[in-house]
């Protein structure tokens, strides 16, 4: 059974806030490159880039791309063969740029570890930051997100489903318990305590 | 996919998966760091019982770009010349810990024997067996056609409705066979043009292919998207399949006049090595329509895709 934790409007608000936070932190859109991690991170990156281009007049026309990390994963030998997704780097490359990686859910941190390795084979950015729509905790590596849409404390046997209108019929983030729901597991973040703004700190206690 | 032995048994989904992964591999080959860590710690053995330079080098480059270790084994100067059997060679490689075997053999079916036996547990890639198949060549040819036709929008596309004419020694050509099966699976229409003596027995009735003995008329009738020239193997020259090289060249060679009669956007392909002046003129080989060098470049991407898809992943959980 799945429980919706972010509606379409919530997702839009989170992405708008993240876009503003990126611009505030970077002091504009100069040298900015937004790279989504396939599959859904790519769409989120495109949305963030579109918002940045709308609210920041001087934003470069090509600032969004995709960074596939499949070949760099540390679990290739443990699963069925994964099909890689396209990597697409904006025309200016990443050398000396400010790269913001975008993914839908931050969990173990292993995908981002792989993405960092993939990125370093493409070039040498000046600085790399991480934006995620949902941080669900349970990190297995020393990796932390800089921009977070929502912190969702979860149990490891729960599942976070991010559905986006680009690929799915609905748009929402839901939480699904794989075991029987004998006890209502994590409910604290369900009620929107402080809607929107920076209250969801990047390191909001899930590490 | 457990092994890649032939294109005849490849489904359209599997073929497109290889072609699409090769797109990603091609992108890697344009980067400054042309290497992926996907097969780190794995060993690929190139087992070549028949002479080949470009295919072996292509597989070697592909394996190295995926960070695999490569062991090259050629029959010349090995225990095979002392009479070692395929079984003993395979078991030796297994004992050395080969994670993947690329095999070229003069006997049709040798890769199949290796894959069906329990001599070695590694994925087997057929790099050309006798007159049977050469699947990676067909895949790289299809990849080259798709890229020329669709450019950056190639991903996920098949070759529906594309007309391909394959000219030359079809009878002895594993390239022609592999291409026929794969192109057919991808929706293309294939026509073989050859001297009647070099058309395989039964091809007219049993294979999904048009057959013609007249190159000029085929060009006029089909207005092909692709013309693929096959190499005339000099060892067949005195076997009386055709009177002499000059006559072959005049009837079935792609000379400058025939090149001019093609549509200006017709792709000219050749698997190499070329006999310039025999099956293809220097003018045709070096024209802008020629994809000979692209085929070599794409060969590395295709072989990377094949090695990645066969060798990464846990075989225990493989469906």
TrEMBL record, chain A:
List compositional bias (Low complexity) regions by residue number. Answer: 181-195
Enzyme Commission number, as recorded: 2.4.2.9
Q: What is this protein called?
A: Bifunctional protein PyrR
Give me the reactions it catalyses: UMP + diphosphate = 5-phospho-alpha-D-ribose 1-diphosphate + uracil
Keywords for the protein's UniProt record, in alphabetical order: Glycosyltransferase, Transcription, Transcription regulation, Transferase
Phosphoribosyltransferase domain residues are 12-153
**What processes in GO biological process is this protein linked to?**
regulation of DNA-templated transcription
The organism's place on the tree of life at top rank: Bacteria
Q: Which family does it belong to?
A: Belongs to the purine/pyrimidine phosphoribosyltransferase family. PyrR subfamily.
Q: Which organism is it from?
A: Subtercola vilae
The protein's role, per its UniProt record: Also displays a weak uracil phosphoribosyltransferase activity which is not physiologically significant. Regulates the transcription of the pyrimidine nucleotide (pyr) operon in response to exogenous pyrimidines.
Enzyme class comes to: transferase
Positions of short motif PRPP-binding = 99-111
Enumerate the NCBIfam families for this protein. PRK05205.1-3 (NF003547), PRK05205.1-5 (NF003549)
Please give the InterPro entries that the UniProt record associates with this protein.
PRTase-like, PRTase_dom, PyrR, PyrR_bifunctional
Q: Which molecular function term from Gene Ontology is one that the record holds? A: uracil phosphoribosyltransferase activity
Residues covered by region (Disordered): 170-207
Q: Which CDD domains match?
A: PRTases_typeI
Automatic annotation (TrEMBL), chain B:
Q: Which GO terms describe its molecular function?
A: amino acid binding; aspartate carbamoyltransferase activity
> What EC number(s) has UniProt assigned to this enzyme?
2.1.3.2
**Catalytic EC class:** transferase
Q: What keywords tag this UniProt record? A: Pyrimidine biosynthesis, Transferase
Q: What is this protein called?
A: Aspartate carbamoyltransferase
Q: What does this protein do?
A: Catalyzes the condensation of carbamoyl phosphate and aspartate to form carbamoyl aspartate and inorganic phosphate, the committed step in the de novo pyrimidine nucleotide biosynthesis pathway.
Gene symbol?
A: pyrB
Domain Aspartate/ornithine carbamoyltransferase carbamoyl-P binding, residue spans: 2-146
Q: Catalytic activity, per the record?
A: carbamoyl phosphate + L-aspartate = N-carbamoyl-L-aspartate + phosphate + H(+)
Q: Which domain of life is it from?
A: Bacteria
> Pathway membership of this protein?
Pyrimidine metabolism; UMP biosynthesis via de novo pathway; (S)-dihydroorotate from bicarbonate: step 2/3
Quote the subunit structure annotation: Heterododecamer (2C3:3R2) of six catalytic PyrB chains organized as two trimers (C3), and six regulatory PyrI chains organized as three dimers (R2).
Instruction: Specify which residues bind L-aspartate according to the UniProt entry for this protein.
Output: 82, 174, 231
Organism lineage string: Bacteria, Bacillati, Actinomycetota, Actinomycetes, Micrococcales
Q: Which PANTHER family match?
A: ASPARTATE CARBAMOYLTRANSFERASE (PTHR45753:SF6), ORNITHINE CARBAMOYLTRANSFERASE, MITOCHONDRIAL (PTHR45753)
Entry's family note: Belongs to the aspartate/ornithine carbamoyltransferase superfamily. ATCase family.
Extract one GO BP annotation from the record.
amino acid metabolic process
* Name of one Pfam family that matches: OTCace
Per UniProt, carbamoyl phosphate binds at 54-55, 104, 134, 137, 272-273
């Amino acid at each position: 059974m799945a429980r919706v934790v972010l509606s379409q409007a919530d997702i839009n608000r989170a992405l708008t806030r993240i876009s503003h936070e990126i611009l505030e932190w970077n002091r504009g859109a100069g040298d900015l490159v937004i790279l989504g991690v396939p599959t859904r991170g790519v769409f989120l990156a495109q949305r963030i880039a579109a918002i940045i281009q709308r609210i920041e007049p001087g934003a470069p026309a090509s600032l969004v791309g995709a960074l596939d990390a499949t070949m760099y994963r540390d679990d290739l030998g443990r699963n069925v063969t994964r099909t890689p997704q396209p990597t697409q780097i904006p025309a200016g490359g990443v050398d000396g740029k400010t790269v913001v990686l975008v993914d839908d859910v931050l969990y173990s941190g292993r995908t981002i570890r792989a993405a960092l390795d993939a990125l370093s084979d493409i070039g040498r950015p000046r600085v790399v930051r991480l934006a995620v729509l949902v941080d669900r905790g349970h990190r297995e590596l020393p990796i932390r997100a800089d921009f977070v849409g929502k912190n969702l404390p979860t149990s490891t046997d729960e599942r976070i489903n991010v559905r986006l209108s680009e690929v799915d019929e609905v748009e929402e983030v839901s939480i699904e318990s794989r075991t029987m729901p004998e006890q209502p597991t994590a409910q604290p973040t369900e009620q929107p305590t402080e809607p929107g703004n920076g209250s969801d700190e990047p390191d909001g206690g899930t590490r | 996919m457990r092994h890649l032995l032939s294109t005849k048994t490849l489904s359209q989904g599997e073929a497109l998966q290889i072609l699409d992964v090769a797109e990603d591999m091609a992108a890697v080959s344009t980067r400054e760091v042309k290497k992926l860590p996907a097969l780190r710690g794995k060993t690929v053995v190139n087992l070549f019982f028949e002479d080949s330079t470009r295919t072996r080098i292509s597989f070697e480059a592909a394996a190295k770009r995926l960070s695999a270790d490569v062991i090259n084994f050629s029959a010349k100067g090995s225990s095979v010349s002392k009479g070692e059997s395929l079984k003993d060679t395979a078991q030796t490689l297994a004992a050395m810990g080969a994670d993947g075997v690329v095999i070229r053999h003069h006997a049709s079916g040798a890769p199949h024997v290796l894959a069906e036996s329990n001599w070695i547990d590694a994925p087997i890639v057929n790099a050309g067996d006798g007159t049977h198949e050469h699947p990676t060549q067909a895949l790289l040819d299809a990849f080259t056609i798709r890229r020329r036709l669709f450019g950056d929008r190639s991903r996920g596309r098949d070759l529906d409705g594309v007309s391909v004419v394959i000219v030359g020694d079809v009878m002895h050509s594993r390239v022609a066979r592999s291409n026929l099966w794969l192109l057919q699976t991808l929706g293309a229409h294939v026509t073989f043009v050859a001297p009647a003596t070099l058309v395989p027995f039964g091809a007219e009735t049993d294979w999904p292919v048009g057959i013609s003995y007249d190159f000029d008329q085929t060009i006029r009738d089909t207005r092909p998207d692709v013309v693929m020239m096959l190499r005339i193997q000099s060892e067949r020259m005195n076997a009386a399949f055709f009177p002499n090289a000059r006559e072959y060249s005049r009837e079935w060679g792609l000379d400058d006049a025939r090149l001019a009669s093609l549509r200006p956007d017709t792709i000219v392909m050749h698997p190499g090595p070329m006999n310039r002046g025999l099956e293809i003129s220097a003018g045709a080989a070096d024209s802008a329509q020629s994809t000979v060098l692209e085929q070599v470049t794409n060969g590395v991407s295709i072989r990377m895709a094949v090695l990645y898809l066969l060798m990464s992943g846990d075989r225990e959980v493989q469906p």
